[in-house]
TrEMBL record:
Signal peptide: none annotated. It holds the Pfam family Radical_SAM. The keyword Repressor does not apply. PANTHER family: ENDONUCLEASE/EXONUCLEASE/PHOSPHATASE FAMILY DOMAIN-CONTAINING PROTEIN 1, TYPE II SECRETION SYSTEM PROTEIN K. It comes from the Bacteria. This is DNA modification/repair radical SAM protein. Residues 61-196 form the Radical SAM core domain. Keywords: Iron, Iron-sulfur, Metal-binding, S-adenosyl-L-methionine. Its cofactor is [4Fe-4S] cluster. InterPro entries: Aldolase_TIM, DNA_rSAM_put, Endo/Exo/Phosphatase_dom_1, rSAM, rSAM_sf, RuvA_2-like.
Length: 420
C-alpha cells in the first residue's frame, strides 16, 4: 500500500479525536539555524475537517488495526473498514515533509492497539524520539497514550511530547464497561495520576533550579530542568454514545480537573459509525450540545461556577437555546440586577455578556470613576445581553418576566440552508 493511501485511511481514522488544540506548551523555535520547527502558530495553514474539527496538526494514527472492540469506535476489531499501518520512519518523514511545506504546526499521533499496549506505546514513543533526537524537531507533539502501557513508557513519552492525553472515553464507569469492556476505568485514572505526578515534579524542578552566572558579565541563566509534557495532559469524552446526561458529564470533568489537574477535557459529540452496534444511538447528538458543554466547562474553569449549579433542569441537560451562563442567570433572577460599580468580582463574573477580561477591565476602571453604560460600550460588552442584569447610574433594568427576557436574548433565528 503506498503512503498516500495509508495517509488517507489513517488521517480519516483519526478525525474522531477532538483533542487537537496545541495551546499551553513552552515556546520553542528554530531561529538561529538549529533544528526544525516551532511551537508558535504563525504561518501555519489551519484547515478543518468537513465536520468542523480543527486538523491543523498532522493528525494521524500509527495504525487503525486494533485488537479491542470498543463499540463506538470505527477502528474496533470487528469493524469492516480498510486497515493500514505506518512504520515509525514513515510517520517521521511525513511530519517533516508537511512541516517543511508549512502545512502543519506539529504532530498529533494516536494508535489502535496492536500486539500489546506496551508494544504499541513503544512505537508511538519511538516516533517522538526520532523526531526530537535525530531530527531536532522543535514543533509541537501531542501523543495519545495507552493507559495499560508500562509506566516507564508513559514517562518516556512525556520527555518528548508537549502534551500527553489519555482518553477517559465515556463519562461514567458503567458506560465504559458497557461500550468498551476491555478498557479499565481505574487503570485510566491510575495513568492520569502518574502523569500528574511527573508533570508536577518537572514543574517543581524547573522552579527550583537556581540561576547561575557561568561567565563574567553574562546574564544569569537557569539550568534546564528535564522537561515533561510542558503543555500538560488532556482527555476526551464522547458525548451522546451512552445515556449519561450533561450533569454527569460535567461532574466527571470537574473530578478530572480537580484530581489530575488536566489542562483540558474535550467533548466529542458521538458520530454514528459504519456497522455500528445496535446498542448505540442511530443519530448523532446535536452539535450544539457539544458546544454548550464547552461553554459550561469554561464556566467551571474561569468563572467560578461549580459543576452542580450549571445544569438547572430536572432532565440533567443543558439548555440548547441559550448559553449556560444566561440559563443560570435566568434561573436565578433574584440575584440580579448587580450593581456594576459595587459588586464583587465573583458576582460580576456571573453577569451574562461580561467575560473574564471585561470584568478585570471593569474592576480597574471603576477604581477611578463610576461607570456608566457608555463605558460598557467602550469595553465592547454586548449591551443587549448584559444590561438586563446590571444596575448603573444611568440604567435600571425594566422588570420583565423570564420568558420575555429569554426570548429577547435568544439569537435571531437563521434561515436553514437548503442543501445542508
Ligand atoms: S482501543 Fe482505541 S482504537 Fe481500539 S477500539 Fe478502542 S477506542 Fe478504538
Amino acid at each position: 500500500m503506498n503512503t498516500q493511501l495509508k495517509l488517507a485511511i489513517l488521517a480519516d481514522a483519526a478525525k474522531y479525536d477532538a483533542s487537537c488544540a496545541s495551546s499551553g506548551t513552552e515556546r520553542r523555535d528554530s531561529l538561529g539555524g538549529r533544528g526544525l520547527g516551532s511551537t508558535e502558530g504563525m504561518g501555519i495553514c489551519h484547515s478543518y475537517a468537513p465536520d468542523g474539527r480543527c486538523i491543523s496538526l498532522l493528525k494521524i494514527l500509527l495504525t487503525n488495526f486494533c485488537q479491542y472492540d470498543c463499540l463506538y469506535c470505527v477502528n474496533r476489531v470487528t469493524s469492516n473498514v480498510p486497515r493500514a499501518r505506518f512504520s515509525v520512519d514513515e510517520v517521521v518523514q511525513l511530519t517533516l515533509d508537511f512541516y517543511r511545506r508549512n502545512c502543519i504546526e506539529g504532530l498529533f499521533l494516536s494508535s489502535g492497539i496492536i500486539q500489546s499496549p506496551d508494544y504499541t506505546m513503544e512505537q508511538v514513543v519511538e516516533v517522538a524520539r526520532v523526531l526530537r533526537e535525530e531530527h531536532d524537531f522543535r514543533g509541537y507533539i501531542h501523543l495519545k497514550t495507552i493507559p495499560d502501557a508500562a509506566p516507564e513508557l508513559l514517562a518516556r513519552a512525556g520527555r518528548y511530547a508537549d502534551r500527553l492525553s489519555i482518553n477517559i472515553e465515556l463519562p461514567t464507569e458503567a458506560g465504559l464497561a458497557t461500550l468498551a469492556p476491555e478498557k479499565d476505568a481505574p487503570a485510566i485514572k491510575r495513568s492520569m495520576a502518574r502523569l500528574r505526578v511527573h508533570i508536577d515534579d518537572a514543574k517543581e524542578a524547573a522552579q527550583a533550579s537556581e540561576a547561575v552566572v557561568s561567565m563574567p558579565r553574562t546574564k544569569p541563566k537557569r539550568a534546564k530542568a528535564e522537561r515533561f509534557a510542558p503543555a500538560g495532559q488532556s482527555t476526551q469524552m464522547i458525548v451522546g454514545a451512552d445515556a449519561a446526561d450533561d450533569r454527569a458529564i460535567l461532574a466527571t470533568s470537574a473530578q478530572l480537573y480537580g484530581s489530575y489537574r488536566l489542562r483540558r477535557v474535550y467533548y466529542s459529540a458521538f458520530s454514528p459509525i459504519p456497522d455500528a452496534a445496535s446498542s448505540l444511538p442511530l443519530k448523532a447528538p446535536p452539535l450544539v450540545r457539544e458546544h454548550r458543554l464547552y461553554q459550561a466547562d469554561w464556566l467551571m474553569r474561569f468563572y467560578g461556577f461549580g459543576h452542580e449549579e450549571i445544569v438547572a433542569s430536572g432532565d440533567g441537560l443543558l439548555r440548547l437555546d441559550v448559553d449556560p451562563k444566561l440559563a443560570w442567570a435566568l434561573a436565578h433572577r433574584e440575584r440580579f440586577p448587580v450593581d456594576l460599580n459595587r459588586a464583587p468580582r465573583e458576582l460580576l463574573l456571573r453577569v451574562p455578556g461580561l467575560g473574564a477580561k471585561a470584568v478585570e477591565r471593569v474592576l480597574a476602571a471603576r477604581r477611578v470613576r463610576r461607570l456608566r453604560s457608555d463605558d460598557l460600550k467602550r469595553l465592547r460588552v454586548p449591551l443587549g445581553k448584559a444590561l438586563p442584569f446590571l444596575l448603573l447610574p444611568d440604567h435600571r433594568p425594566r422588570a420583565i418576566d423570564d420568558a420575555q427576557l429569554a426570548a429577547k436574548l435568544q439569537p435571531a433565528p437563521v434561515q436553514g440552508a437548503l442543501f445542508a
